Each structure stands twice: as C-alpha cells, then as structure tokens.
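Morning F.,

Quick status update on the modeling queue. The single chain you submitted on Monday has been processed. Sequence for confirmation:
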Amino acid sequence: MQPATTQLTLQEVSDRLDRLPASRFHAKILIVAALSLLFDTLDTAITGFVLASLRSTWHFDAKTIGYVSAIGLSGYLLGSFLCGFVADQIGRKKTILFTLILYSVFSASRGLSNTISVFAWLNFCTWFFVGAESSTVPAYLAELWPSRIRGKLVGWMMAFFGAGIALSSVWALLIIPTLGWRWAVFLTAPFALIGGVMRSVLPESPRWLIRAGRPVDAAVVLRRIETDVSQSIGRPLAHVTPGQCRQDLFVRRADPKELLGAAYRTITLMLWVAWFAEYGVLYTYQIFLPTILAAEGHSIVNSFRYSVVIYSAVIPGYVLGGYVVEWLDRKYTILLSFASIVAFGTLFAHSRSPSQIMTFAGITVFFVSLGSTAIYTYTPEIYPTEIRATAMGIASAWGRVGAVTMLLVFGHFFAILHKSILFFIIDPVLIVAAFVVLCFGPSTRGRPLQEAIESDCGAVPAITQHM
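Structure tokens below.
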C-alpha cells in the first residue's frame, strides 16, 4: 500500500499544531465553537424547569417527566451516534455549522406546543441536534489544541456547559414566573443562531483534511493558523521538533466496527461504561432537581432559587477540572469524581434543611462537572483522527443511554422512594464504573492525539503502546 501523498503528513500537522503557544487564535476558536455549547446546555437544563412548572398546569406526574425527558434524550442519543460518523465523512466545520442552525429552529418551535405529546416530539428533534453538536465540537477542538494545554482548554470549554446549566436556573427564575414557559424556550433560539453565523469563520481541522485526502487544503489552513498565532504573540514561531517516528498518510474512511476490533475493544467498552454512569447521573440531577425540591414542599419559585445556588457550583467544577486532569491525569480525575458523587450525593439524599440541600447538592454537581471535563478530555485523545468523531459520538450516545435508563427508573420509583432513590440507584452504577475505569483505563496526560497509522515504528495503533 503506497502513501497517498508526500506533500504533508499527519505527523507534520501534529508536530506543527502541538508546538504552537497558547494564543488569541486558541481563545477565538474556543469561544466561537464552544459558545453554542452554552445554549445547548441551557436548552436541556431549562427543559427540567419548564416541565416542573407545567406539571400542575397540564396535570401530569413525575413519571411523565421521566418519559418526556427520556424521549428527548433518545433524540440526543441518536444525534450523537449518527453525527459523529457524519463529521468523520463530511468534515467537522460543516457538521457543527448546520447542526446548530437546525437545533435553533426546533428549540424555538417547542414554545408552540399545546400538549405534552407535541412538546415531547419537538423536544426529541431539538435534542437530536444538541447531541450532534456535543459529540462533534469536542473532537474538533481537541484536533486544534496543543497536547500540553489540551486539558486546561477542555476545562474552559466545559465551563460553557457549566455556564449553560448555571444560567438555566436564573433564566427560569426571571422568565417563567413573569413571561411564561413559552418565552423561556423562544428566547434561546436567537442567541444560538448568532453562534451559528459566527462559526462560518472557523477553519476546518487540518488533521481531518489530511485524512480526507486533501493535503493541499490542510497546508493552506495550517499556514493561516500559524500566521494568526505568530501575529497574535508578536514573534516568529519556534522551529518544528519532528515526532519520534515518521507517519505515512493513508486515505481511508472511518469504520465504526474498528471501535470493537482487537486494538480498541477494551478501551471502547471502558469508555462506554464511564459515559453511561457520568451522564446518567448528570441528567438525573439536571432534569429532576427542580421536581425533587418542589415535591419536598418548596414552592416552584423557591426551588428555582435553590437551584441557582446549587448550579453555581458547575462552572468552577468544569474549569478546575481542566487543571485537575493535567495534575492528576484524566483517569484518576474520573475516579475522584465518581467517588465524591457517591459520598456527597448520599448526603444530599438524606438532607432536610435548605442549607443542607444547597450545600450537599452543590458539592455533588461540582464533582459531576469535574467528571464531565475529565471524560470529554479523555475520549478524543484515545482514538485516531479517522474515527475520532465517530468514537466520540457513540460514546456520547452511551452516555444518553445511561441518562434515558436512569430517568425512566427515577421517574417510575420517585413517588415511592422520593429523594432516597438517588443513592439506591446512582451509587451502585458509579461504583461499578469506577472499578472498570481503574482496571482498564490508560493514562493519556500530556500525550499527543492518538493516530492509527503505518509508521517506521511499526503498524500498531498508538493507544496499545500505553496499556
């Protein structure tokens, strides 16, 4: 098999991107690409407040909230699964541009619903594109960021998720009691559309262009990035330090079956378990927290106020997570997160006073956020470019399988077990997932993005070298 081109190799692209200093360019792509994640998360989080406020108006119970949320997350699951593969085929930039525009349209349309069934269907369509978005953006950004600061930048990217969650409670408190629930969903769309227009200035990933057999385009994009960085720092860039082994380019399309092939099977299954646990827990708290507080006798307005305090912990959780993954490693940050959620989530389940509720729930969501940063940093680092977005999308889909499963279980048993169901269901899932990550998760801190290639060092996927 002959290399498709000698003009520019994937190793050269990786070396040139990894030697770049942090600059205005990295900040720009972070803000423009990740700003939509704020609106995606705001949208999904606000749904929990909308359903809590509609419960008495449309006369449905907590079980229905579980069903509606599970239907929405099924759309998220499908969008994550399919659009990761699409991004590996047509490119990162096109995918994240069109998914955001379509998300905005369906998100606003939910405000026209007059029945819970119509709301559930439109919510499914909205979250389909939210899922597509959240599985593609992290892979795109990981391919542009230098390996030595990738964890910190992922932490800041995840802060946009945290800002969306934190803003959702303020948004609900200010808009739902005054303008009504319909405006709470109408008003998210214009901001998301602005983010979509801003994305038109983003570059395509040079790594993807190389894998797509477009080395000339990759070289043009790479030169523009280097010029932008050089101008922003006010000095010439450092010379490129070649990688340890030469990587020859082979143009091939993503094959999802590779994820369960001999090279990646153990890693893939480990990640699916971790995503299942992390996002099953995250969405249970995110969707049901207002309902839990209201069911314990707190008014809707007070439950929204408590949520403002509780959700304020997610932003420092996401940002600090970016620094913890560099200090402690991605794998051990996930373990720290899962152990802490078990401990403080159980304390929250036994809380009675408002101060106890806000303290223990706030600490719990802090560590949930920490785990999200770790898992979003970890997953793209483990797979090569040609299957990275596909792998990220399917892993994200498994996270939503966990969310759908736990929301249905929580909604079904909440009327019987109330808040105590949190530790009856969540704790065993997290303990099993932590054990799997401990036994089968590799260390990736400070390593360049993985590539499966033929090289002078042998035809072995890079990840197997670190198991």
